[in-house]
Amino acid sequence: MHESDFFFQAFVYLAASVISVPIAKRLGLGSVLGYLLAGIIIGPFALGLIGEEGQDVMHFAEFGVVMMLFLIGLELRPSLLWKMKRSIFGLGGLQLVLTTVLIGAVALMLGQKTSEALAIGLMLALSSTAIILQTLAERGQMKTAAGQASFSVLLFQDIAVIPILALLPLLAVSGAEHAGASGHEEHARMIAGFEISGWVQVALILFVITGIVVVGRFLSIYIFRIIARTGLREIFTATALLLVIGIAVAMEAVGLSPALGAFLAGVVLADNEYRHELEANIEPFKGLLLGLFFLAVGASIDFNLFLQQPWLVLGLLGVLVAVKFSVLAILGRVFGLRGGQGMLFSFALAQGGEFAFVLISFSLQNSVISQEVSGILLIVVALSMAITPLLLLINEKIVQPIIEKSTNERDADVIEDSGNPVIIAGFDRFGITIGRLLFANGIKATILDDNPDNIEVLKKFGVKVYYGDASRPDLLHAAGCENAKVLVIAMSDKQKSLQIVDHVSREYPHIKIIARSVDKTHAYEYLKRGITDYDHDMFGSSLESGKKVLCQLGFNEYSAHRAALIFKRQDQLNEKELFNHYESDEKKYILEARRLSDDLERMLKNVNEQSIHESDNAWDNTTLREEVRMMYAESGKNPDSSDG
Amino acid sequence: MIQAVEGQEHVTVRYLYDLYPDFYIDVKAEQELLLEHDIIVWQHPFYWYSAPALLKEWIDLVLEHGFAYGREGNALKGKQVLTATTTGGRMEAYTEGGHNRFTMNQFLAPYEQTARLCKMDYLPPFVIHGSLIMNEQDIKQVSEDYRKVIVSLRDGIFDVKDLMEHKYINHILT
Asked: Which of A17, A381, A422, A614 could anchor a disulfide with A352, C-beta 3.0 to 4.6 Å?
């Protein structure tokens, strides 16, 4: 490529990204869709700024996927990976097999030969790691159940690519020309230019993987240390890149997927102390390369072919997405992804992936499929990738709200009055600790919560939680307010908590209320209703952390503890005082904002009074020392002299 | 025992472990109460030949220099201090030849001297021995004795000189 050409291309790609991605983000479409649209715009069909070389760029940019899997590996400790084995092999395996069979069946019906149909099924069963992981990460959904399940499936697909690559040439054998068979077989066994036997290949694979584990686990730390000691940032960056590229080269040499190798290396390095440094160095490259990859995918969509057979392409696209979606939805249910999570999982993975591009061109070379079929397949896969962000958007804006509504409209559970002495209303982080303390002391509590997800999770741990809105009088009655001694209002909803207070103190005056307050005004509203046993929901833990800070700054444990106690006591006193202020202000109808700023000012002024030195004379012997000195002075002796 | 005196007129009961479960003693409030009263009773079980930790903390913090003792510390001058305590061991154990090798009065020397330093009068202690083997009847009896002692002290019935002659204040009732 000519040098000025290179700069022009770089300019086009970068400009397209810089302009389109912020706009897409602003419109709430996500970066992936922004890249894809920009790719379409600069591609041969629209502006024509890039042409055939787009394919080369795509192959180059696929390396972004390798880097992404390396980074994901870094976040996954081996123990965590081991825990996911059921979803990787069970869910991932079933997804691949079922989707292959169904898509293959459709291909058969459309008149393809068995071998072709199987090949097409295998190609299209794979989903797009790049698009899914990038999109989920951008929305912060990687850690959700759906995110984890998606990742498991994608990981299995990455593993499956290897046997699929080995299998495709064999499909050509059972296909038409027998003559070429031996040639293909040869191809399968040609590795790094040498003709080798299957056993040697297995040995080589084991050797490379062992190498990655040994180097990553035992040697890398020394290498990174030496490099880091040079103090040259770019050399560390170069080392990080060298590591990932080296792995990719080694994996390709033995016929494995570079992405899988990079992922493995990432997992091995997850405990490494240079992990974050590695992450920081690889991250920008990954981002840019993935962006480039999406641009290239957008540019590669052959709209001319699309315009020739628009209904065929759209029809196939619909069938592809529908088949993949149904398989995923069923499997998601079987593997415990309920409601919204199951939908997210199914929408996320319902497209063809970048591996399909590789497999399609590989199959074409091996004449498993015809030129015509491969063209159609390419555009269907590219379009399916392009609509994924749209599907996810539909899921988020339309499907999820419907699911949420239907789950929230679920009727409140029927509560048997168990005669428990304690009722806990609201069981999030705040209520859970209270519940655990009670359970640990053998005290039974009736628990109410109105978050269905919460209830499902707690059920798994054997905690019986009744679904329902605790601010409903009939529910409180059913929960056993008649006989309970204590009601804990542990919900974060201000309005509801106050409603409960009003209702309970009217109907069940015998019950002692312990309440959670989320801010000052909430506390004042409690005080107004005569509830003095309330706790600010962050206060205790903040105070504990504050104590630790004091300790780090040289306070001994006990003085820090005491300083925190004094602060707490003083804060409580101030709050009661401010409450009077609050009440009288309210009577005077002074604007809320004015009152709050006034309160804040008073609070800040009070900080001085909360100093340990002003209010705590414990063990302070200054005055005693003065008096002893005076005594000595009167008797004419020097307290500091040795005869004293 | 405490129930026998709680609610009596001019008697204030302070359950320190209820008031200060986190050992954070409100020194000011305690000092103000001391000023309002003439007789201070330290009532506690006898743990390891001494008072439980919180009462020691109370003494450490509330009896401040400049308040309770020292050149300027005359706030408690002339008040009376009584230790009221219960031991598991029998009376014979608290003799020089006994199991515990020292008498109660010897064990209570630090409290006596603390009172002395604060210019207060340390009365002979109210001591109940063998508390672990008591039956309902015994408990009723000692509680009644205790009530009598406290009420009599409150009303100033005892002759202080005579009082000081006794080893335990309980003996004045017999």
From this structure: A381
Q: Which of A565, A617, A619 lies closest to B24 in CB terms? A: A565
Chain-chain contact of B22 with A621 (C-beta, under 8 angstroms): no
A-proximal residues of B, 40-79, CB under 8 Å = 60-61, 64-66, 70-71
Nearest to A534 by CA among A561, A483, A506, A500: A500
Interface test with B, best of A623, A628, A631 (most B CBs within 10 A): A623
DSSP lists the bridge partners of residue B50 as B47
Instruction: Show residues of chain A in contact with B65, CB under 8 Å.
Output: 621, 623-624, 627
Edge-to-edge strand ranges of the sheet holding A466-467:
A466-467, A445-449, A422-425, A486-489, A512-517, A534-536
Contacts of A368 by beta carbon, 8 Å cutoff, 6+ apart: A115, A116, A119, A168, A169, A171, A172, A175
The tens digit of pLDDT for each residue in A159-210 reads: 788 778 778 877 775 544 443 333 344 444 444 445 556 677 788 888 888 8
Q: What percent of chain A has pLDDT over 90?
A: 17
Q: Give pLDDT tens digits for A479-506.
A: 888 888 999 999 988 888 999 999 999 8
Looking at beta carbons, which residues of chain A come within 8 Å of B61? 618
- Kindly report the pTM of this predicted structure: 0.53
CA dihedral A41, A42, A43, A45 (to 10 degrees): 50
The structural domain count of chain B equals 1
Contacts of B22 in chain A (CB under 8 A): 565
Task: From residue A487, give the alpha-carbon distance in Å to each of A429, A471, A495, A504, B44.
Answer: 17, 12, 17, 9, 35
The number of CA neighbours under 13 Å toward the Cβ of A465 is: 28
Q: Select from B154, B128, B151, B124 the least CA-distant residue to B140.
A: B128
Domains and CATH numbers, chain A: 3-404 (1.20.1530.20), 410-537 (3.40.50.720), 547-644 (no CATH)
Q: What does chain A come to in residues?
A: 644
Token representation of residue A185: 């077989």
CB A473 within 8 A of CB A452: no
Considering only CB atoms, which chain B residues are within 8 Å of A621? 65
Q: Tell me whether residues A617 and B64 touch, CB distance under 8 A.
A: yes
Q: Are A467 and A505 in contact (CB under 8 A)?
A: no
**Min Cα separation A543/chain B (Å):** 15
Interface check A82 vs B, CB under 8 A: no
Is A129 in contact with A354 (CB distance < 8 Å)?
yes
User: Is the CB of A619 less than 8 angstroms away from the CB of B64?
Assistant: no
CATH value at residue B104 = 3.40.50.360
Unique residue bearing structure tokens 């870094």? A74
A459–B contact, CB cutoff 8 A: no
Q: How far is B64 from chain A (nearest CA, A)?
A: 8
For chain A, positions 575-634, list CB contacts with chain B under 8 A: 617-619, 621, 623-624, 627, 630
Q: Which residue has the tokens 């409030």?
A: B29
- Name the β-bridge partners of B39: B80
Interface pTM, i.e. ipTM: 0.72
Compute and round to an integer the Cα radius of gyration of chain A.
33
Task: Answer yes or no: is pLDDT of A218 > 50.
Answer: yes
Check the CA dihedral A81-A84-A85-A89 and report its sign: negative
* B117 vs A: CB within 8 A: no
CA dihedral A24, A26, A28, A30 (to 10 degrees): 40
Residue A132: count other Cβ atoms within 10 Å of its Cβ: 27
DSSP state of A194: E
Residues in chain B with CB shorter than 8 Å from the CB of A564 are: none
Chain A residues inside the 8 Å CB shell of B66: 623
A17 CB neighbour count, 10 Å cutoff: 21
